[in-house]
Specification:
Number of domains of chain A: 2
Helix content of chain A: over 70%
Strand content of chain A: under 5%
Order of helices and strands of chain A: HHHHHHHHHH
CATH superfamily of the largest domain in chain A: Tetracycline Repressor, domain 2
Number of strands of chain A: 0
Oligomer: homodimer
CATH topology of the largest domain in chain A: Tetracycline Repressor, domain 2
Radius of gyration of chain A: 20 Å
CATH architecture of the largest domain in chain A: Orthogonal Bundle
DNA sequence: GTCTATATCTCGATAGAC
DNA sequence: GTCTATCGAGATATAGAC
């Protein structure tokens, strides 16, 4: 790796840190340069201006930081106990989206969406990947006759809305909210039960 | 109304406009004062500093802008067709939360939640009011024997998650997203049907 | 490509007159 | 209470040397 590439990587890392901690307007190019141990003109020569720096760095971070739960989802349809497998899968998903760095990044993107609408597209696109993994699982369960899910994509949105999104929504407005012992498990399993009851075969 | 009160009101309105359009860090007290046609020291004499201005003005706006759907909810339990009444109620709720000013304010609050955690509490509190109206309706339906909803508060969160929150989530990351003809109605009614199937008596 | 140094501007906040 | 005028700090961005 050339010295220039190293500096670019250092700037990227420093910029993510500053943007996440202070927001777009609150982060200064000065501070980013200092944190990356380069001079300010080096930042500008690599990224042009502050807006492009933000878009490049945060957009890349969104894509790279994505946690692919596809392999876990693909086991649901073949599991001996689909309910347990579903709860397990959604539990893992909830764990990921409640991570503090994920939540902070999420709030940053939402807050800057008017200035950077492209980031909303990236976010939606990244999230769709895990949705699709579940869609495949439900299509398989439908085919096997275990469930009656004629519109798997809609069903997936309903299930994740009651579980993953509901948990994330709480922390979106209350970052310090501490879930009680068993509260998250109860939230997930009750959502799964509503879902399975509604989409039961017969 | 005294001249001082008029100026305070003008500052409040101007501050909401600037904060909503530019975010906390992006809005300047200069611009707020100019928009309110007062001098900067007048702003400071009324609100102390920028942070208190933001908290006071946005907090008040959140509380005042709240749309009380309680009366509409109280009709659900007595309606001849509870399903239709529920769909009607949630459709009105969706309409409110998708309004552009509501969405923009929501993104602003989320983006600044680390700096102003109190606003998250206000938001949660305001939203709980509409939740409680639905809780009352389900408790009544449970008592009547029309539904089997032993935990109405949990059930309300599940229903709103699939309908109101799901619609709002889409627009949160994609402000310009246009719902197709009938897409919102389908989203709401399918959510209601999942809910009613899962919580049917028997 | 990368640096030092700086131009230019705007910010939040306040002193002092009225 | 409200104004004009201004302070000091810190912002983005760039010129010019190497």
């Amino acid at each position: 790796m050339s010295a220039s590439e190293r500096k670019r990587a250092a700037i990227t890392e420093a910029a993510i840190g500053e943007f996440v901690e202070r927001g777009y307007a609150g982060a200064s190019v000065d501070a980013i340069a200092a944190r990356a141990r380069v001079s300010k003109p080096t930042v500008y020569s690599h990224f042009g201006n502050k807006e492009r720096l933000f878009l490049t760095v945060i957009g890349g971070y969104l894509r790279d930081g994505y946690t692919d739960l596809g392999p876990l989802a693909d086991r649901i349809a073949e599991a001996p106990d689909p309910r347990a497998a579903l709860i397990d899968f959604l539990g893992s998903w909830v764990e990921v989206v409640l991570r503090e760095d994920v939540m902070t990044l999420r709030r940053l993107v939402i807050g800057e969406i008017d200035r950077f609408p492209q980031l909303g597209q990236v976010w939606a696109q990244v999230n769709a990947t895990n949705d699709e993994a579940l869609v495949r699982a439900f299509a398989a369960l439908h085919k096997k006759g275990a469930l009656d899910v004629p519109r798997p994509r809609q069903a997936v949105r309903q299930l994740t809305a009651m579980t993953v999104d509901a948990a994330q929504l709480i922390r979106t407005f209350r970052p310090a909210y501490e879930f009680d012992e068993g509260e998250l498990e109860e939230l997930v399993s009750s959502g799964v039960d509503v879902f399975l009851t509604a989409y039961a075969r017969g």
